Amino acid sequence: MKKICTVFVLLMILLGSHAFAEDGYRLWQRYEQVQDASKLQAYRKAAGEIIIQGNSPTLKVAQQELEMGLNGLLGQAVPTTQQPTQQNILVAGTPSTSALIKELNLSDKLKAAGDEGYLLLTTTKNGRNYTVIAANTDIGVLYGSFHLLRLLQTEQDIAKLSLTSTPKIKHRVLNHWDNLDRTVERGYSGFSLWNWHLLPDYIDQRYIDYARANASIGINGTVLTNVNANALVLTPDYLKKVAALADAFRPYGLKVYLTARFSAPIEIGGLKTADPLDPQVQAWWKQKSDEIYGYVPDFGGFLVKANSEGQPGPQNYGRNHADGANMLADAVAAHGGIVMWRAFVYDDKEPDDRAKQAYNEFKPLDGQFRDNVLVQVKNGPIDFQPREPFHPMFGAMPKTPLMMEFQITQEYLGQGTTLAYLSPMYKETLESDTYAKGKGSTVAKDIDGTLYKHTLTGIAGVANIGTDRNWTGHQFGQANWYTFGRLAWDHTLSSEEIAEEWLRMTFTNNSQFIAPVKSMMLGSHETIVNYMTPLGLHHIMGWSHHYGPGPWIKDKHRADWTSVYYHRADEKGIGFDRTKTGSNAVSQYFPPVAKQFANLKTVPEKYLLWFHHVDWDYKVNSGRTLWNELCYRYSSGVDGVRQMQQTWDKVQGQVDEERFQHVKTFLAIQEKEAKWWRDACLLYFQTFSKRPIPQDLEKPAHTLEHYMSLDPKFVPGI
Ligand code: BDP
What we know:
Signal peptide: 1-21
Distance between the termini: 57 Å
Domain Glycosyl hydrolase family 67 catalytic: 152-471
Protein name: Xylan alpha-1,2-glucuronidase
Number of helices: 23
CATH class of the largest domain: Alpha Beta
Number of domains: 3
Bound molecules: beta-D-glucopyranuronic acid
Strand content: 5-15%
Helix content: 25-40%
GO molecular function, one term: alpha-glucuronidase activity
Radius of gyration: 27 Å
Domain Alpha glucuronidase N-terminal: 27-148
């Protein structure tokens, strides 16, 4: 008896700790019971039973998700039936597989839903009340199911639903910079999710939960491997493993893509060349693509980094980017595959400003790419800096569909321990006006195809996901994965709406928590810009690992990887002159933008030192001298982190202690790092400005020599 009791108690403890473990694993899909009593009652009433007619794998997962979600949210089991037995029914399906949906005569409304969209509506028929999730395709049904669950999770009214939702961009893709040895380039949340060693035999539950999370926000593609590619992934042993992942993801509408190493025909094909115009090379890629489609019939295609940072490419053979992209595009075209060819190219042998090189190389190729090629362009012309003006290629290639590449992982944004909500940064780029076809030609319109009437459209996010229990290292890193998906689906959503949704689902619907934490999130990016790279400064981080400040980095084998190349501080002032008197990078923008950026009086202050070399005593908008403004900005960045700490401290008790403490600890690390940035940068720049740090500001804790001697070892993600 005693033994049974002990076992029982142990079991209860285990179950209890499992039920209450808030370690972040469940992301925004926690499905905890709705707290608002009247909402709970309304939801319970609306979802008397679930009916999903049809049994494809995707409909199955929609059913599972609705069951799991509703059981949790409603705190009671909701039966699934095949025919109506109750008064209030939740029905999901397409007219082709569900007689019930067909009878509701939604075909007019469904026209607007397209291939991936859906309708959510409330209606009645034969005296019964229906909450309807309808779509033209099974994946639309799944996306609609997640939307409905989100409405419940965020405690919205579902009594009179009438909405249609369709994605604005076709290919919404995560880029994993994951290596085959499971290290992740620029990854700060553990190792790669893909356990290549155990694949194809072992399918980790994580793969399924990863696919569920992606489907819940509409992400429909995943590039499994690093852009700095390894040709081995294209060999049969690895393709079997890739196929196993593709099989696991397929029900969730998640297509698999691979990075193609341009020299693969030599490395694994035994050819002497990888020249894209060589018929043998073309035949090799064709045959390789056919082979891949044998394993993965719906393989998405290739992502390619070529002739960039030492990667092989068509230029090794005197060919251009279009030659390279087209060869691969031809190889996958018959199977419906696409090629995402990256425009992240620059060369240290090239004397021109690095910011200009991609445009210089790609603009002349406009119109030369095959129909199934997307050119993938980073948001700004350098490299995922805390803040960059939009890339001048946007708007500038009318005949080529351009795909956006955002970085979700925080390589230059404090990495794993920094709370940086990135939606405002993504939106800043998307909403930038290129003036390509006059006012209103935003970057978003180029990406979503409306500017130049492209139907092939795409957006990529460099993933921040790893084996950490909470997936993203920082609990708030999850918000950036979430945001990327939501904006990829609908870039008109506001940062505020997305933050609110995410907070409600991830933490609580309690408004006393939501309001302050949302405003903390919304200000977080600006705070970081202030303590790292205010006023348009860029690329002044630690050498190679990019962790912490390193404005003094110089004399390396590549000038374009040093900090002094970018900030150009001297006795007179600081900043990179990209106007006519300097590199003239401004000339790559359309005239109204070029004019605005080129003029010291009209350039937005946030880009001041990006485009201008400015005197230390120049008066900025605040009326302060540039030097004093720099001091205030750096200091206000540190103050901003302290405010975030205060905000977070005040919500203790409103969320589980486990995640509360985790975030609190990381905020303390962030405060330490912010001071490090402020002190190191101000002391270093002061050696040029020779001006004092204003009296009322906190003084640096150590000497410049101290900061310059810091040399963090084994920083993750290199
Ligand atoms: C830089 C990273 C480097 C990547 C490169 C790229 O430092 O690790 O390989 O971008 O995007 O930001 O190719």
